Amino acid sequence: MEFTVEQIALMLNGEIKGDKSLKVSQLAKIEDGTEGSISFLANLKYEHFLYTTQATAVIVDKTFEPKKEYSPCLILVENAYSAFTTLLQEYQKILANQKKGIEQPSFISNSATIGEGEYIGAFSYIASNCKIGKNVKIYPHVTILEASIIGDDCTIYSGVKIYPNTHIGNHCTIHANAVIGADGFGFAPQADGTYQTIPQLGNVLIEDYVSIGANATIDRATIGSTIIREGVKIDNLVQIGHNVEIGKNTVIAAQTGVAGSAKIGANCMIGGQVGINGHINIPNKTIALGQSGISKAPNKEGTILSGTPATENIDYLKTQALIRKLPATEKRLREIENKLKSNE
Amino acid sequence: MEFTVEQIALMLNGEIKGDKSLKVSQLAKIEDGTEGSISFLANLKYEHFLYTTQATAVIVDKTFEPKKEYSPCLILVENAYSAFTTLLQEYQKILANQKKGIEQPSFISNSATIGEGEYIGAFSYIASNCKIGKNVKIYPHVTILEASIIGDDCTIYSGVKIYPNTHIGNHCTIHANAVIGADGFGFAPQADGTYQTIPQLGNVLIEDYVSIGANATIDRATIGSTIIREGVKIDNLVQIGHNVEIGKNTVIAAQTGVAGSAKIGANCMIGGQVGINGHINIPNKTIALGQSGISKAPNKEGTILSGTPATENIDYLKTQALIRKLPATEKRLREIENKLKSNE
Amino acid sequence: MEFTVEQIALMLNGEIKGDKSLKVSQLAKIEDGTEGSISFLANLKYEHFLYTTQATAVIVDKTFEPKKEYSPCLILVENAYSAFTTLLQEYQKILANQKKGIEQPSFISNSATIGEGEYIGAFSYIASNCKIGKNVKIYPHVTILEASIIGDDCTIYSGVKIYPNTHIGNHCTIHANAVIGADGFGFAPQADGTYQTIPQLGNVLIEDYVSIGANATIDRATIGSTIIREGVKIDNLVQIGHNVEIGKNTVIAAQTGVAGSAKIGANCMIGGQVGINGHINIPNKTIALGQSGISKAPNKEGTILSGTPATENIDYLKTQALIRKLPATEKRLREIENKLKSNE
Known about the structure:
3 copies of one chain form a homotrimer.
Chain A: E1 3-4, H1 5-12, E2 15-17, E3 23-24, E4 26-27, E5 37-41, H2 47-50, E6 57-61, E7 73-77, H3 80-98, E8 101-102, E9 107-108, E10 113-114, E11 119-120, E12 125-126, E13 131-132, E14 137-138, E15 143-144, E16 149-150, E17 155-156, E18 161-162, E19 167-168, E20 173-174, E21 179-182, E22 187-189, E23 195-197, E24 203-206, E25 211-212, E26 217-219, E27 225-228, E28 233-234, E29 239-240, E30 245-246, E31 251-252, E32 257-258, E33 263-264, E34 269-270, E35 275-276, E36 281-282, E37 287-288, E38 293-294, E39 304-306, E40 311-312, H4 313-324, H5 326-343
Parallel strand pairs in A: 4-5, 5-6, 6-7, 8-11, 9-12, 10-13, 11-14, 12-15, 13-16, 14-17, 15-18, 16-19, 17-20, 18-21, 19-24, 20-25, 21-26, 24-27, 25-28, 26-29, 27-30, 28-31, 29-32, 30-33, 31-34, 32-35, 33-36, 34-37, 35-38, 37-39
Antiparallel strand pairs in A: 1-3, 2-7, 22-23, 39-40
GO molecular function, one term (chains A, B, C): UDP-3-O-[(3R)-3-hydroxyacyl]-glucosamine N-acyltransferase activity
Catalytic activity (chains A, B, C): a UDP-3-O-[(3R)-3-hydroxyacyl]-alpha-D-glucosamine + a (3R)-hydroxyacyl-[ACP] = a UDP-2-N,3-O-bis[(3R)-3-hydroxyacyl]-alpha-D-glucosamine + holo-[ACP] + H(+)
Domain UDP-3-O-[3-hydroxymyristoyl] glucosamine N-acyltransferase non-repeat region (chains A, B, C): 22-89
């Protein structure tokens, strides 16, 4: 796609300094700008790039005053950073809306219903009694099994696998090859050392505005639902066990695992590679730093946790400092021992 | 599906207290019971839910005596919990057996053989010389490459990718998007800093009653076989390296990684996010707690390991207690130093 | 496939001791050798297997002198180990080249271009404006989205998902169900506790001779490119965040995560389950041991790191030794206290 500088200035409510007929077709960082690209300058730390960039146009704050010669056409706006973000979002929307219709071959059960504005990629599979909302984009190689419900304005990327009876709200995004609703890991030990599979008959319930990363896995509940509340953001390769509940607007970074029946509060921030024990109840606004291992829940909201086993971060830092001092401690101890010996 | 209370009581060998013609169509926890659902009461801690639940029917122990009015129809059985489990399993079997036949389009080589009772989902790919047993359910988007063998009564969920020459036993379940048989991670360092790929020509051998989680990866051997013994249960996102052998009935929780050529004994329980070094030999019945990092194998069966580097859990707990006491230790040391100073 | 011992000796420039007309059809470890298999003996530690193996042929160093009777035909070469590796590679090449042509049904946009020597598996999806080089093997269920470029001699295994605008060099291998180019994990916190999605409009750039493991995820950049340099080898289930750059010939083992905007130097060796913080700059030749958590970059090349938070391995080992001595330290401290008390 190609836009004139004028079109973009109109979209951003900006003022043009330069040739309004210039055309741009891609977005770039100011230091990487090439002909045909548009960039932005928000932080004056990067001002020097304006004087060397090959970008065709640069969005700047309207208060900005250049100190040297520059070649790009400028678009002056209230706030260059947020204007550029707006531009990114508009561009994304345009791209997303280009995908329309049902590609063939695809496999859609007669009993499935699909709202208008849909995109169904080739080789997608929608089983019986599924209900797909409006403006849903389903990329190739998605499997949606029986009686699953997907709300409006969702995007399901390639290779996502959704087990039966999954409920997904509106405005959700699920990235490629994520698996929603596989069996919880439940096996009953038998007297002979073998394990019997405990049937997993619950489902996964995902509310609105949830984002789930590539290759993440969310197991369905044994009975009842594994629940992902409104606004939750889950990164790539995260594991959510059966019967877990993740509270509203909680964010979980990559490769973290939440064991079965844990309940995580709202507005928590969980770092990458964190492990959370089963059957514990993490309060709202808890912050868990990367790689921490949470075996017990903190007893108040807003606690910052780190380490394994996780403790309050401030205690962790003190302990780490003392651990680093162990060689000195050892030396002091030996000195005392020597002194006492020589005193004898 | 819908059943009458009478049908269910017959299946469970139970006695009915209430209207035997009532119909139920789903399973629920007693506190979540709605009209049309059946639940159970096994632990009297939850007895109060019986008096408020909207469930149509509730399975109870035949020794149970209600203390208040209740609305559901009761089904009295020997053991309510195990009766409910039986119900879950029967329900699961009914669901599973509904899937039958070969959906189109699918891609099945002429030289592949498939036993009776099969389900092959649309867009599945079965390459030449594969042998698929009886009653095997292969969901959409599965790839099974050349000369792989799958036993009877297996379920292979959507998107599973099986590399050539993989051997899978009977009664196995592989969850969505798991990858069986990718290249082991083997590269020979060259003088110029680059790496040459070491061809990985072995395979993966999976015995009977094995379960493998969603998005798990099991690499094939360089030469010979990566072996998963009978009854092993592997959770989501687990990594099994090349030439690893996992002993009978060992259970491995999510996101654990086992490096190349490690051998894990039988009846071990490995927690989540555990790392196991290559080329070590873990004895039978070892228990590794979550996030532990096992660089050396314990020297006897039944050891409980934790921490990184992993030690016996009892030592780990002692050490952790002493680490938590480090601030106090520091204080004691300073007091001694002060005392000695003032004594001088 | 079947070869005579003579054909193999020719390929390896070896000399035959035995019946050159014998036929072999598989490769095996010497201890597992069965009739029809060929093996090798490089390390004399395994010499005893030569006298018991059922292998039809065994490759040995030409300096090797057997001490007992043996049954296999021998092939004498300069270096048995490297000859066997050559054999593995040749075998692999033959297998790979058997895959040719475009299987149906597949979905290839009219505007996509594909070089000669291609294999496109059934149910593969190649979107508009993609450019695929020569001798590229694309297995079933691969999705390659708009305007992506793949160089010559690449192998893309089943179920790999490639987002739009991804650039992949020559001689790359991507294993099953890996996801290249999903959204970076970028969300701007709002005053009301919700998060706004930050559009991710960059791409992923992968240079030549890169290998990426099964179920690995490499996010695209917010703006600009996430870059994987020439010769990088990435294992299964690894997470590479947005705007990361991985330097030439760096090797990353399974389940490691690299957070957004981190830059890793050339020729590094990163172990399994390592966590690397965002926005840090790891120097060339850094070695990170398994499960380490790198929050700060080391300040010189070639540093060996371990532990969380990661320190130089030599310091880590000292600290670990002192931690193990804590019970003894506690005892010494108590003795001193008692002595001082009794002196009072």
